[in-house]
Amino acid sequence: MDCAEARRSHIQFSTDKLTEGKLQTHLVPCAIKSNGVAPISQYFRPEATDQVIDGKTVLHAALRGRELNGARLGVPDGYNGYVMRSSQPASSETTWTAESQFEELTYWLHDVVPTASDLLPRALEWAELAKEAHAPISAADVEAMME
Questions:
Q1: Per-residue DSSP letters for 19-68?
Q2: I need a labelling partner for 112 at 20 to 30 A (CA). Which of 16, 41, 67, 72 fits?
Q3: What torsion do the CA atoms of 71, 72, 78, 79 make, to the nearest 10 degrees?
Q4: b/e 75-111 (16+ beta carbons within 10 angstroms → b)
Q5: Number of neighbours of residue 27 by Cβ within 10 angstroms
Q6: Tens-of-pLDDT digits for all 147 residues of the chain?
């Protein structure tokens, strides 16, 4: 098997398996080696602070004794956010399945407060930039720009 075969993935999108209701999605700077159910809301309790940076309220939480600062980000217009689960059956092909959908996510950082210059907010800005860069331009628009 060559590298191209080893990296094949398949994405399954089916809305009939998506979790209903508003989902709170968090992107935390750690790896959790468990896929089971856990009483997260009992231990992970984010709170809004009085601090506002770049128009976003800074959130504060702790996870396993580590202090975290976070901010909420909306999914760019025209896009959907999905929580995906991977599975690797006996074959080498990884299958990704959409489990739930979200409209915003909270990203967390250690030891620093979130700002608009963080990687995730900057990456999400590319969605709007790409939409503008690839939008069709009419002849009238070109003529107006030339004047």
A1: BPS---EEE-SS-----S---HHHH---EEEEEEETTEEEEEEEETTEEE
A2: 41
A3: 90
A4: bbeeeebbeeeeeeeeeeeeeebbebbbeebbbbbee
A5: 12
A6: 455 555 566 676 666 677 766 778 899 988 878 777 778 888 889 999 999 999 999 999 998 889 999 999 999 988 889 888 777 666 667 777 888 889 999 999 998 999 999 999 999 998 888 888 888 888 898 888 888
pTM comes to: 0.75
Look-up: residue for tokens 């398949």? Answer: 10
Q: Residue length, the chain? A: 147
Helix (H, G, I), strand (E, B) or coil at 84: strand
Domains of the chain with CATH codes: 7-146 (2.40.128.680)
H/E element holding 94?
strand 94-102
Rounded CA-CA distance 55/53 in Å is: 5
Distance, in Å, from the CA atom of 42 to the CA atom of 26, rounded to the nearest integer, reads 15
Element (H, E) at 77: none
